[in-house]
Amino acid sequence: MADSVAPEPEAEPDVPTGDGASTGDGAPTAAPDANPATAEDFLPINGTDYVEFYVGNAKQAAFYYAHYFGFEIAGYRGPETGHPDAASYLLRQNDIRFVLTTGLGPDTESVRHQQKHGDGVKDIAICVDDARSAFNETTKRGATAVQEPEVIEGEDGRIVRSAIGTYGDTIHSFVERTDYDGLFMPGFDPYENEFLQTEPAGLRLVDHCVGNVYLGDMETYVNYYAETMGFKNMLHFSDDDISTEYSALMSKVMSNGDEIIKFPLNEPAEGEKKSQIEEYLDFYQGEGVQHVAMLTDDIIETVRDLRSRGVEFLETPDAYFDMLPERVGEIDEDIEVLRDLNIQVDRDPDGYLLQIFTKPQQDRPTLFYEVIQRKGARTFGAGNFKALFEAIEREQAKRGNL
To answer: How many CB atoms lie within 10 A of CB 323?
Structure first.
Protein backbone atom coordinates (compact mmCIF):
# COMPACT_ATOMS: atom_id res chain seq x y z
CA MET A 1 0.00 0.00 0.00
CA ALA A 2 2.91 2.38 0.52
CA ASP A 3 3.75 1.80 -3.13
CA SER A 4 1.20 4.23 -4.60
CA VAL A 5 -1.98 6.21 -4.20
CA ALA A 6 -3.86 3.38 -5.91
CA PRO A 7 -4.15 0.20 -3.82
CA GLU A 8 -2.72 -2.97 -5.33
CA PRO A 9 -5.43 -5.13 -6.95
CA GLU A 10 -6.05 -8.54 -5.50
CA ALA A 11 -7.02 -10.17 -8.80
CA GLU A 12 -8.16 -9.50 -12.34
CA PRO A 13 -11.80 -8.34 -12.43
CA ASP A 14 -14.27 -11.23 -12.50
CA VAL A 15 -16.87 -9.38 -14.47
CA PRO A 16 -20.32 -10.52 -15.46
CA THR A 17 -21.12 -11.30 -19.05
CA GLY A 18 -24.26 -10.95 -21.09
CA ASP A 19 -25.85 -9.38 -24.14
CA GLY A 20 -25.76 -5.60 -24.39
CA ALA A 21 -27.54 -3.15 -26.64
CA SER A 22 -26.34 -2.98 -30.22
CA THR A 23 -27.48 -1.81 -33.62
CA GLY A 24 -27.05 -3.29 -37.03
CA ASP A 25 -27.79 -0.32 -39.26
CA GLY A 26 -24.34 1.30 -39.13
CA ALA A 27 -25.53 4.45 -37.32
CA PRO A 28 -24.27 5.75 -34.00
CA THR A 29 -27.09 5.11 -31.60
CA ALA A 30 -28.03 6.61 -28.26
CA ALA A 31 -28.65 3.47 -26.25
CA PRO A 32 -30.81 2.88 -23.18
CA ASP A 33 -29.43 1.72 -19.85
CA ALA A 34 -28.05 -1.78 -20.48
CA ASN A 35 -29.82 -2.91 -17.31
CA PRO A 36 -32.83 -0.72 -16.41
CA ALA A 37 -33.17 -2.50 -13.07
CA THR A 38 -29.99 -0.74 -11.90
CA ALA A 39 -31.19 2.74 -12.83
CA GLU A 40 -31.61 3.72 -9.15
CA ASP A 41 -28.89 6.10 -7.99
CA PHE A 42 -27.17 3.79 -5.54
CA LEU A 43 -23.80 5.32 -6.49
CA PRO A 44 -23.97 9.15 -6.28
CA ILE A 45 -20.87 10.58 -7.97
CA ASN A 46 -19.34 14.05 -7.64
CA GLY A 47 -16.87 13.76 -10.49
CA THR A 48 -13.36 12.53 -11.28
CA ASP A 49 -11.20 12.85 -8.17
CA TYR A 50 -7.81 12.11 -9.75
CA VAL A 51 -6.14 9.98 -12.38
CA GLU A 52 -3.04 8.09 -11.23
CA PHE A 53 -0.33 7.01 -13.65
CA TYR A 54 2.40 4.47 -13.00
CA VAL A 55 5.51 5.77 -14.76
CA GLY A 56 9.19 4.93 -15.06
CA ASN A 57 10.48 8.22 -13.63
CA ALA A 58 7.87 10.31 -11.82
CA LYS A 59 10.16 13.31 -11.23
CA GLN A 60 11.02 13.69 -14.91
CA ALA A 61 7.42 13.03 -15.97
CA ALA A 62 6.17 15.71 -13.56
CA PHE A 63 8.42 18.31 -15.18
CA TYR A 64 7.28 17.14 -18.62
CA TYR A 65 3.62 17.72 -17.72
CA ALA A 66 4.44 21.05 -16.08
CA HIS A 67 6.29 22.35 -19.14
CA TYR A 68 4.19 20.91 -21.95
CA PHE A 69 0.68 20.95 -20.48
CA GLY A 70 0.84 23.74 -17.88
CA PHE A 71 0.32 21.65 -14.75
CA GLU A 72 1.42 22.90 -11.37
CA ILE A 73 3.52 20.39 -9.43
CA ALA A 74 1.52 20.85 -6.25
CA GLY A 75 2.51 17.98 -3.99
CA TYR A 76 5.01 15.20 -3.30
CA ARG A 77 5.00 11.95 -1.36
CA GLY A 78 8.02 9.72 -0.94
CA PRO A 79 10.78 8.63 1.44
CA GLU A 80 11.13 12.18 2.77
CA THR A 81 7.48 12.16 3.86
CA GLY A 82 7.52 8.71 5.40
CA HIS A 83 6.74 6.57 2.34
CA PRO A 84 9.94 4.68 1.45
CA ASP A 85 8.63 2.43 -1.32
CA ALA A 86 7.54 4.94 -3.97
CA ALA A 87 7.66 8.57 -5.08
CA SER A 88 4.44 10.30 -6.15
CA TYR A 89 3.95 13.79 -7.57
CA LEU A 90 0.60 15.58 -7.52
CA LEU A 91 -0.11 17.65 -10.65
CA ARG A 92 -2.93 20.15 -10.66
CA GLN A 93 -4.63 22.43 -13.17
CA ASN A 94 -8.04 23.87 -12.25
CA ASP A 95 -10.16 20.79 -11.38
CA ILE A 96 -7.78 18.26 -12.94
CA ARG A 97 -5.57 16.22 -10.61
CA PHE A 98 -3.00 13.79 -11.96
CA VAL A 99 -0.78 11.66 -9.72
CA LEU A 100 2.47 10.27 -11.13
CA THR A 101 3.91 7.34 -9.18
CA THR A 102 7.20 5.46 -9.50
CA GLY A 103 8.16 2.51 -7.32
CA LEU A 104 11.62 2.63 -5.77
CA GLY A 105 12.30 -1.11 -5.85
CA PRO A 106 11.84 -3.98 -8.30
CA ASP A 107 9.22 -5.76 -6.19
CA THR A 108 6.81 -2.83 -5.92
CA GLU A 109 3.47 -3.13 -7.68
CA SER A 110 3.92 0.11 -9.62
CA VAL A 111 7.28 -1.05 -11.01
CA ARG A 112 5.81 -4.38 -12.12
CA HIS A 113 2.91 -2.51 -13.76
CA GLN A 114 5.24 -0.12 -15.57
CA GLN A 115 7.55 -2.89 -16.75
CA LYS A 116 4.62 -4.69 -18.35
CA HIS A 117 2.58 -1.79 -19.70
CA GLY A 118 5.00 1.13 -19.96
CA ASP A 119 3.79 4.46 -18.59
CA GLY A 120 0.03 4.24 -18.23
CA VAL A 121 -3.08 4.85 -16.16
CA LYS A 122 -3.55 2.70 -13.08
CA ASP A 123 -6.44 4.40 -11.29
CA ILE A 124 -9.37 6.52 -12.47
CA ALA A 125 -10.51 7.69 -9.04
CA ILE A 126 -14.09 8.82 -8.45
CA CYS A 127 -15.14 11.40 -5.86
CA VAL A 128 -18.08 10.25 -3.72
CA ASP A 129 -19.74 11.36 -0.49
CA ASP A 130 -19.51 7.87 1.04
CA ALA A 131 -16.66 5.56 0.03
CA ARG A 132 -17.95 2.73 2.24
CA SER A 133 -21.38 2.76 0.64
CA ALA A 134 -19.86 3.00 -2.86
CA PHE A 135 -17.74 -0.08 -2.18
CA ASN A 136 -20.56 -2.07 -0.59
CA GLU A 137 -23.14 -1.21 -3.25
CA THR A 138 -20.85 -2.06 -6.16
CA THR A 139 -19.28 -5.22 -4.76
CA LYS A 140 -22.62 -6.71 -3.73
CA ARG A 141 -23.67 -6.29 -7.37
CA GLY A 142 -20.61 -8.16 -8.61
CA ALA A 143 -17.75 -5.62 -8.77
CA THR A 144 -14.31 -7.02 -8.00
CA ALA A 145 -13.06 -5.86 -4.59
CA VAL A 146 -9.58 -4.32 -4.76
CA GLN A 147 -9.45 -2.28 -1.53
CA GLU A 148 -11.81 -2.54 1.43
CA PRO A 149 -12.76 0.89 2.81
CA GLU A 150 -9.80 2.38 4.68
CA VAL A 151 -9.41 5.59 6.68
CA ILE A 152 -6.28 7.66 5.96
CA GLU A 153 -5.74 10.24 8.70
CA GLY A 154 -3.44 13.24 9.00
CA GLU A 155 -3.15 16.68 10.54
CA ASP A 156 -5.70 18.12 8.08
CA GLY A 157 -8.38 15.50 8.65
CA ARG A 158 -9.12 12.16 7.11
CA ILE A 159 -9.96 10.60 3.79
CA VAL A 160 -11.91 7.38 3.30
CA ARG A 161 -10.95 5.37 0.24
CA SER A 162 -11.97 2.05 -1.30
CA ALA A 163 -11.46 0.53 -4.75
CA ILE A 164 -12.86 -1.90 -7.29
CA GLY A 165 -11.41 -3.42 -10.45
CA THR A 166 -12.33 -2.80 -14.07
CA TYR A 167 -10.72 -3.75 -17.44
CA GLY A 168 -7.16 -5.07 -17.39
CA ASP A 169 -5.10 -3.82 -14.43
CA THR A 170 -7.07 -0.56 -14.23
CA ILE A 171 -9.02 0.23 -11.06
CA HIS A 172 -11.53 2.77 -9.76
CA SER A 173 -10.88 4.18 -6.30
CA PHE A 174 -13.80 5.75 -4.45
CA VAL A 175 -12.55 8.79 -2.52
CA GLU A 176 -14.51 10.49 0.27
CA ARG A 177 -13.19 13.95 1.22
CA THR A 178 -15.92 15.40 3.43
CA ASP A 179 -13.64 15.42 6.51
CA TYR A 180 -10.42 16.56 4.84
CA ASP A 181 -9.11 20.10 4.31
CA GLY A 182 -5.53 19.35 3.24
CA LEU A 183 -3.60 19.53 -0.02
CA PHE A 184 -4.62 16.17 -1.49
CA MET A 185 -4.47 13.35 1.02
CA PRO A 186 -2.40 12.56 4.12
CA GLY A 187 1.21 11.78 3.24
CA PHE A 188 1.53 14.45 0.54
CA ASP A 189 3.50 17.61 1.32
CA PRO A 190 3.48 20.78 -0.79
CA TYR A 191 6.10 20.61 -3.53
CA GLU A 192 8.55 23.49 -3.43
CA ASN A 193 10.85 24.63 -6.23
CA GLU A 194 11.28 28.39 -6.38
CA PHE A 195 12.81 28.23 -9.86
CA LEU A 196 10.01 26.24 -11.50
CA GLN A 197 7.71 28.55 -13.41
CA THR A 198 4.52 27.12 -14.92
CA GLU A 199 1.51 28.80 -16.48
CA PRO A 200 -1.82 26.96 -16.91
CA ALA A 201 -2.95 26.15 -20.45
CA GLY A 202 -6.70 26.47 -19.86
CA LEU A 203 -7.33 22.77 -19.17
CA ARG A 204 -10.25 22.70 -16.75
CA LEU A 205 -11.45 19.17 -15.89
CA VAL A 206 -11.38 15.55 -17.02
CA ASP A 207 -14.18 15.11 -19.57
CA HIS A 208 -13.84 11.36 -20.17
CA CYS A 209 -11.39 8.44 -20.13
CA VAL A 210 -11.38 5.88 -22.97
CA GLY A 211 -10.52 2.21 -22.48
CA ASN A 212 -9.28 -0.27 -25.10
CA VAL A 213 -10.33 -3.92 -24.58
CA TYR A 214 -9.91 -7.18 -26.46
CA LEU A 215 -12.29 -8.32 -29.20
CA GLY A 216 -15.34 -9.79 -27.51
CA ASP A 217 -14.78 -8.03 -24.18
CA MET A 218 -16.64 -4.76 -24.81
CA GLU A 219 -20.08 -6.19 -24.00
CA THR A 220 -18.62 -7.78 -20.88
CA TYR A 221 -17.53 -4.39 -19.54
CA VAL A 222 -20.63 -2.59 -20.77
CA ASN A 223 -22.62 -4.98 -18.60
CA TYR A 224 -20.09 -4.72 -15.76
CA TYR A 225 -20.51 -0.93 -15.57
CA ALA A 226 -24.29 -1.22 -15.91
CA GLU A 227 -24.76 -3.96 -13.34
CA THR A 228 -22.22 -2.96 -10.70
CA MET A 229 -22.19 0.86 -10.98
CA GLY A 230 -25.60 1.59 -12.49
CA PHE A 231 -24.09 3.24 -15.58
CA LYS A 232 -26.02 3.61 -18.83
CA ASN A 233 -24.92 2.94 -22.40
CA MET A 234 -25.48 6.41 -23.82
CA LEU A 235 -23.99 5.92 -27.30
CA HIS A 236 -22.89 3.12 -29.64
CA PHE A 237 -20.62 3.20 -32.71
CA SER A 238 -20.51 0.08 -34.87
CA ASP A 239 -17.69 -1.07 -37.13
CA ASP A 240 -19.69 0.38 -40.04
CA ASP A 241 -19.30 3.83 -38.47
CA ILE A 242 -15.59 3.59 -37.63
CA SER A 243 -13.62 1.82 -40.36
CA THR A 244 -11.15 2.20 -43.20
CA GLU A 245 -10.25 -0.15 -46.03
CA TYR A 246 -7.82 -1.87 -43.63
CA SER A 247 -9.35 -2.00 -40.14
CA ALA A 248 -12.24 -1.04 -37.89
CA LEU A 249 -13.35 -0.67 -34.30
CA MET A 250 -16.54 -0.73 -32.26
CA SER A 251 -17.23 1.56 -29.32
CA LYS A 252 -19.83 2.13 -26.61
CA VAL A 253 -19.98 5.06 -24.21
CA MET A 254 -20.90 4.30 -20.60
CA SER A 255 -21.85 7.07 -18.17
CA ASN A 256 -23.41 7.57 -14.78
CA GLY A 257 -26.93 8.98 -14.57
CA ASP A 258 -26.10 12.69 -14.78
CA GLU A 259 -23.20 12.06 -17.20
CA ILE A 260 -20.54 13.61 -14.94
CA ILE A 261 -18.47 10.49 -15.61
CA LYS A 262 -18.10 9.08 -19.15
CA PHE A 263 -16.16 5.93 -19.96
CA PRO A 264 -16.10 5.06 -23.69
CA LEU A 265 -14.95 1.49 -24.39
CA ASN A 266 -13.31 0.42 -27.68
CA GLU A 267 -12.74 -3.03 -29.09
CA PRO A 268 -11.16 -4.00 -32.42
CA ALA A 269 -13.28 -5.34 -35.26
CA GLU A 270 -12.38 -7.78 -38.01
CA GLY A 271 -10.30 -6.16 -40.76
CA GLU A 272 -7.73 -6.83 -43.46
CA LYS A 273 -4.86 -5.53 -41.33
CA LYS A 274 -4.03 -4.92 -37.66
CA SER A 275 -6.38 -2.46 -35.99
CA GLN A 276 -4.93 0.48 -34.01
CA ILE A 277 -6.75 -0.99 -31.01
CA GLU A 278 -4.83 -4.23 -31.53
CA GLU A 279 -1.59 -2.23 -31.81
CA TYR A 280 -2.36 -0.61 -28.46
CA LEU A 281 -3.18 -3.96 -26.85
CA ASP A 282 0.06 -5.45 -28.19
CA PHE A 283 2.29 -2.66 -26.91
CA TYR A 284 0.42 -2.18 -23.63
CA GLN A 285 0.32 -5.95 -23.21
CA GLY A 286 -3.27 -5.88 -22.07
CA GLU A 287 -6.39 -3.82 -21.77
CA GLY A 288 -6.07 -0.28 -20.47
CA VAL A 289 -6.75 3.44 -20.83
CA GLN A 290 -6.18 4.66 -24.39
CA HIS A 291 -6.62 8.38 -23.76
CA VAL A 292 -7.73 10.96 -21.24
CA ALA A 293 -9.82 13.91 -22.50
CA MET A 294 -9.43 17.29 -20.82
CA LEU A 295 -12.08 19.99 -21.16
CA THR A 296 -11.27 23.60 -22.00
CA ASP A 297 -13.48 26.67 -22.38
CA ASP A 298 -11.45 28.00 -25.34
CA ILE A 299 -9.88 25.26 -27.41
CA ILE A 300 -8.31 27.64 -29.92
CA GLU A 301 -6.31 29.49 -27.27
CA THR A 302 -5.47 26.27 -25.41
CA VAL A 303 -4.20 24.52 -28.55
CA ARG A 304 -2.16 27.56 -29.57
CA ASP A 305 -0.63 27.60 -26.11
CA LEU A 306 0.11 23.86 -26.10
CA ARG A 307 1.65 23.99 -29.58
CA SER A 308 3.92 26.84 -28.49
CA ARG A 309 5.16 24.60 -25.65
CA GLY A 310 5.97 21.77 -28.07
CA VAL A 311 2.95 19.47 -27.74
CA GLU A 312 2.54 17.41 -30.93
CA PHE A 313 -0.96 16.77 -32.26
CA LEU A 314 -2.34 14.40 -34.87
CA GLU A 315 -2.88 15.98 -38.27
CA THR A 316 -6.21 16.17 -40.12
CA PRO A 317 -6.36 16.30 -43.96
CA ASP A 318 -7.57 19.48 -45.65
CA ALA A 319 -10.49 17.56 -47.19
CA TYR A 320 -11.97 17.16 -43.70
CA PHE A 321 -12.25 20.96 -43.33
CA ASP A 322 -13.50 21.44 -46.90
CA MET A 323 -16.52 19.29 -45.99
CA LEU A 324 -17.02 20.77 -42.53
CA PRO A 325 -19.70 23.43 -43.28
CA GLU A 326 -21.93 20.90 -45.02
CA ARG A 327 -21.40 18.25 -42.34
CA VAL A 328 -21.78 20.26 -39.11
CA GLY A 329 -23.63 23.40 -40.19
CA GLU A 330 -23.11 26.84 -38.67
CA ILE A 331 -20.51 27.22 -35.94
CA ASP A 332 -19.05 30.22 -34.11
CA GLU A 333 -15.42 29.54 -35.01
CA ASP A 334 -13.50 30.48 -38.17
CA ILE A 335 -12.97 27.27 -40.13
CA GLU A 336 -9.63 28.50 -41.47
CA VAL A 337 -8.36 28.91 -37.91
CA LEU A 338 -9.54 25.38 -37.10
CA ARG A 339 -7.86 24.09 -40.27
CA ASP A 340 -4.59 25.77 -39.32
CA LEU A 341 -4.69 24.22 -35.84
CA ASN A 342 -6.13 20.82 -36.94
CA ILE A 343 -9.09 21.16 -34.55
CA GLN A 344 -12.00 18.90 -35.47
CA VAL A 345 -15.72 19.68 -35.11
CA ASP A 346 -18.73 17.41 -34.78
CA ARG A 347 -22.36 17.52 -33.72
CA ASP A 348 -24.80 15.53 -31.66
CA PRO A 349 -28.53 16.29 -31.17
CA ASP A 350 -27.78 18.83 -28.41
CA GLY A 351 -25.06 20.95 -29.99
CA TYR A 352 -21.51 20.69 -31.25
CA LEU A 353 -18.04 20.03 -29.90
CA LEU A 354 -14.47 20.79 -30.89
CA GLN A 355 -11.63 18.39 -30.21
CA ILE A 356 -8.03 17.56 -31.02
CA PHE A 357 -5.76 14.63 -30.12
CA THR A 358 -2.09 14.50 -29.22
CA LYS A 359 0.37 11.94 -30.42
CA PRO A 360 1.31 9.24 -27.87
CA GLN A 361 3.06 10.74 -24.86
CA GLN A 362 5.62 7.95 -24.45
CA ASP A 363 7.70 5.78 -26.75
CA ARG A 364 5.16 2.95 -26.80
CA PRO A 365 2.21 3.95 -29.05
CA THR A 366 -0.29 3.72 -26.21
CA LEU A 367 -1.55 6.60 -24.01
CA PHE A 368 -2.41 9.98 -25.56
CA TYR A 369 -4.56 12.99 -24.69
CA GLU A 370 -7.56 14.79 -26.09
CA VAL A 371 -8.42 18.46 -25.68
CA ILE A 372 -12.16 19.08 -26.00
CA GLN A 373 -14.56 22.01 -25.87
CA ARG A 374 -18.29 21.37 -25.69
CA LYS A 375 -20.83 23.81 -27.09
CA GLY A 376 -23.98 22.00 -26.07
CA ALA A 377 -22.93 18.53 -27.23
CA ARG A 378 -23.34 15.85 -24.55
CA THR A 379 -21.88 12.92 -26.45
CA PHE A 380 -19.62 12.41 -29.50
CA GLY A 381 -20.01 12.45 -33.26
CA ALA A 382 -19.23 9.65 -35.69
CA GLY A 383 -17.43 12.01 -38.08
CA ASN A 384 -14.74 12.95 -35.59
CA PHE A 385 -14.44 9.42 -34.28
CA LYS A 386 -13.70 8.19 -37.79
CA ALA A 387 -11.30 11.09 -38.43
CA LEU A 388 -9.39 10.20 -35.25
CA PHE A 389 -9.31 6.54 -36.30
CA GLU A 390 -7.87 7.49 -39.69
CA ALA A 391 -5.30 9.86 -38.15
CA ILE A 392 -4.05 7.19 -35.74
CA GLU A 393 -3.93 4.68 -38.59
CA ARG A 394 -1.66 7.04 -40.58
CA GLU A 395 0.73 7.21 -37.62
CA GLN A 396 0.44 3.43 -37.19
CA ALA A 397 1.50 2.94 -40.82
CA LYS A 398 4.61 5.10 -40.19
CA ARG A 399 5.59 2.72 -37.39
CA GLY A 400 5.19 -0.27 -39.71
CA ASN A 401 2.45 -1.81 -37.56
CA LEU A 402 -0.57 -1.54 -39.87
So the answer is: 11
